[in-house]
Amino acid sequence: MTSTPTRARPAAPPEPDRPAPALGAWGRRTAAALSFRNIGAVYVWLVIVVLFSVWVPETFPTAITVKQVLNGNAVAGLVALSVVLPLAARVFDLSVAFIMSLTSVLTAYFMVSTGLGPGAAIALAMTAALLIGVVNGIVVVVLRVDSFIATLATGALIQSLITMVTNDSSITGVQLLAKPFASIAQLDAGGITLPVLYLLLAASAIWFLLEHTASGRRLYATGFNADAARLQGVRTDRLRFLTLVASALLSGFAGIVFASSVGSGSPTAGTPYLLSAYAAAFVGATQLRAGRFNAWGTVLAVLLLGTGITGLGLATSAQWAASLFTGSVLIVALVLTGGRIALPTVLRRRKSPPAEPVTTPDKEIS
Amino acid sequence: MTRPLLRVAALSKRFGGTQALKDVDLEVAPGEIHALIGPNGSGKSTLIKILAGYHHADPGAVAELDGEPFDLSQVAASRHDRLRFVHQELGLVGELSATDNLALSRGFARTAFGNIRWPEMERRTTALVERFGLAIDVRRPLALASPVQRAVVAIAAALQGWEGRRGVLVLDEPTAVLPPGEVARLFDIVREIRDTGAGVLYVSHRMDEIFALADRVTVIRGGRRIATLPVAGLTPRSLAELMAGEEMETDHRPASAPGPSEAVLEVRDLWAGPLRGIDFDLARGERLGITGLVGSGHEIVPYAVCGAHTGPVRGRLRLPERSERWVDARDADSLGLPLVPADRAGEGVIGDFSVGENLTLPLLDRLRARVGRLHRGREGALAEEWIERVGVRTAGRGARITTLSGGNQQKVVMARCLAQRPPVLMLCEPTAGVDIGTRLQLYDLIERQADEGMGVIVSSSDTQDLLALCNRVLVVRDGRVVREIGGRDITEPALVHAMEGT
Question: Where does the chain cross the membrane (chain A) (predicted)?
């Protein structure tokens, strides 16, 4: 809970003309950083951990579970991160799941059927992902088709491409299980596999871009109010185009990691990740930078969802529990962001501001 | 006088700390066109919204229609069956026909099976609109009808089912969407309604309309009723003084036009939207107004000059201080002139951004540190500096911009334009939705910039802005500059006459 007694605005830095004691300011900032409003998912996650530790004490609170949650959710995390950049610019890329399937299938196809080495196969698969990103960009930005429908349509096209390559059956081969390729996803240090590192690197890169560069600020501006951003010289079309290319590349990479981890190219590799990616991105947008799609919030959400699903898997054998959990968390998070309000404000029941911004009084803020 | 048809007394309304209306009284007599006039932000739209049931009044207000009291203290779908409204945007659905639109407010005639009796509906609609001497195809989508036809359909929709009874029709700036030639027809219709013994409350901020149409006028300013007077005893000058108040007249009047001086912006043969070839020069330190009726094209000039007009543009412009080369208007954005847009919420501020983020958005390139990182310290300092300089009242640069009043948001938008140190500043409707106090501060700010040598273009349909700010005003009609008014000759009547072409 925020400790500021007057106004619910923990994001506001202390006023310069009213210097608070250094410790007070530091304390307030720490309190804001640790507030439920800012990192509610961490507290929910702790509750889940405690809950399952009590429910299934033999299997849940173990090192194996930790590894399983981390290793098992790294690919999901990569896919979730891939939609963060487009979403920040208010672009939906629903083709990420299909791009993921495509690169997994293409890599396997080139290695098994045409005998290329892993490097060449990966390069070709990533080129395909890049091309699809460009096609998405052309359809959405140049031809001005709504991104939600446009990427659903390009997704269907990609799926047909996949069927052409695979006849809808997985591509397997010893090459995929052998050392150099298998290492991409399976090399580990102390039981933590490489994809966890990829996830951290990708999250760091996206975090830096969104939080610490001009381009990141402009991406958010594009997402929040493209007209206003354009008038301020932000090249909104170019940014939206580039986010689609970025999401294609990152989800394409996730497909390759997936192929390496399971040792085959599956025509439906990506589809199960679509919902969870958007769930994580939207839950993530309620965390850390409330109202903004952001990298670490998304990673946090992936871990929260992953922990819950793993725990449910250990505690019950109910197949339906995982989707039930994902769906419930998503709805709760969206209800909280839908009104752009975090929990404490709701509980405080502040009166909503007058409907007319025109008459919003000056005095209210002084 | 006979008993008033509509009587409102002691009407007050507070929004948070702002007193939008204070003890306003208003009476509309039967057979009277009563004008309600006041500058933008004076509270007249709040008054109408309270009457319409969109806002509730503060306790203590009294309201009667034909002697019957009704309640203003609740938000309600409708206040009184005989109090009818035509809002500025007319409230019609363009995709639907006149028949459908009329039925939306009063329902459809149905058979016993529940299906709509179209022939009867169409007969009814035709009869209603024919009363106003209008022949339209009642089956065609209204989007295909002319503006005056749509206005008449809106009035017909509002008047449905009050035939033969005395009520009050409230018209909220109905001419805003009409071309000048059709205003006279609308006025005839309004007079006809009055002559049936109904009362008409006619809201406007245009003085010429008051003199052409109204019997009495109530002037409100700053949320208070200033006066209620018969129009016959007024002159444009005395009404302008009532509307503007003395302080505006004296404090904010440019002393004189700057002497001949080098141009900072030259625009030649500019075509965009309704604009059909506009030429002008803007001198250093000059405050040039561009005005006209809605749709005349004046509002497009700043957008076209800064390259933000969506649609074909033609013409050339140059900044002589910067380069002798003429720039094609299609590449106008390469000049990088900043714009304070008309629609603050839609095009001006980014509502989800903080004050600081809004301020620095166009300046981010200046704040680069190594590896493309944004220098947070410099960004904060820049934001603080400009918040201080233009006097934004905010809890801090981290506060969300939408927590600020309209006027303070406008200051932020202006500050970020000024921070780019442009040779020319362009403003569209700079004081729309800004309260009187902040408005004066904005005038001061603009004046100071001009005194330092910046050229300022103010595109506004609010004559108050032009009177208070400009050394010279270009009046645009039908896409061309029809009048140029300078210095002391800039008066309300002169502007209105030039805008209307009378």
Answer: 38-57, 69-89, 96-116, 122-143, 148-167, 187-210, 239-259, 271-288, 295-314, 320-343
Domain boundary among B199, B221, B245: B245
Instruction: Assess whether B99 and B211 both reside in one domain.
Output: yes
CB contact under 8 A, A16 and B384: yes
Taking the C-alpha atoms of residue B366 and residue B346, their distance in angstroms, rounded to an integer, is 26
Domain holding B171: CATH number?
Answer: 3.40.50.300
Number of domains in chain A: 1
Clarify whether residues B364 and B263 are in a common domain. Answer: no
Torsion sign, CA atoms A141, A144, A146, A149: negative
- A22 within domain boundaries: no
What does each C-alpha distance from A81 to A92, B46, B392 come to in angstroms? Answer: 13, 47, 38
B96 and B42, same structural domain?
Answer: yes
- ipTM here: 0.78
Nearest to B394 by CA among A37, A21, A12: A12
Is residue A11 assigned to a domain?
no
For residue A312, the enclosing domain spans: 37-341
Tell me how close the Cα of B343 comes to any Cα of chain A, in angstroms: 9
Contacting residues of A for B407, CB less than 8 Å apart: 362
Q: Is residue B71 domain-shared with residue B219, that is, in the same domain?
A: yes
Q: What is the CA radius of gyration of chain B?
A: 25
Smallest Cβ–Cβ distance between A229 and the set B16, B350, B402 belongs to: B350
Q: Containing domain of residue B356, as a range?
A: 348-421
Inspect the interface and report whether the beta carbons of B347 and A221 lie closer than 8 Å. Answer: no
Nearest CA in chain B to A16: B396
> What angle is formed at CA A214 by the lines to CA A208 and CA A216, rounded to 5 degrees?
50
Is A17 touching B (CB cutoff 8 A)?
Answer: no
Nearest CB to B353: which of A224, A362, A363? A224
Same domain, B330 and B469: yes
Count CA atoms within 13 Å of residue A157 on its CB side.
14
Nearest CA in chain A to B334: A233
Answer yes or no: is B343 within a domain.
no
**Does residue B166 sit within a domain?**
yes
Let me know if residue B1 belongs to a domain: no
Q: Token pair for residue A327? A: 């769906």
Q: What is the CATH number of the domain that holds A307?
A: 1.10.3470
Task: Give the H/E segment covering residue A202.
Answer: helix A194-212
Any domain includes B265: yes
Helix %, strand %, coil % of chain A (to 5): 70, 0, 25
| pLDDT tens-place values along chain B, 502 residues long | 568 888 999 998 887 666 788 899 999 999 899 999 876 667 887 888 888 888 888 888 888 888 888 888 777 666 677 888 887 767 777 778 888 887 777 677 777 777 777 788 888 888 877 777 777 787 888 877 777 788 888 888 887 777 656 788 898 887 766 666 677 778 888 888 888 888 999 988 777 788 889 999 999 887 888 889 898 888 877 887 777 665 444 445 555 555 556 889 999 999 988 889 999 999 988 999 999 887 788 888 999 998 888 889 999 999 988 888 999 999 888 888 999 998 888 889 998 999 999 999 999 988 888 888 999 899 999 999 999 988 888 888 888 898 887 888 999 999 999 999 899 999 998 887 776 667 788 888 888 888 888 999 999 887 878 888 888 999 998 888 988 888 878 887 788 778 877 6
Task: Tell whether B461 and B496 lie within a shared domain.
Answer: yes
Q: Please list every residue in chain A whose beta carbon sits closer than 8 Å to the beta carbon of residue B373.
A: 208, 212-213
pTM of the model: 0.74
Is position A277 within any domain? yes
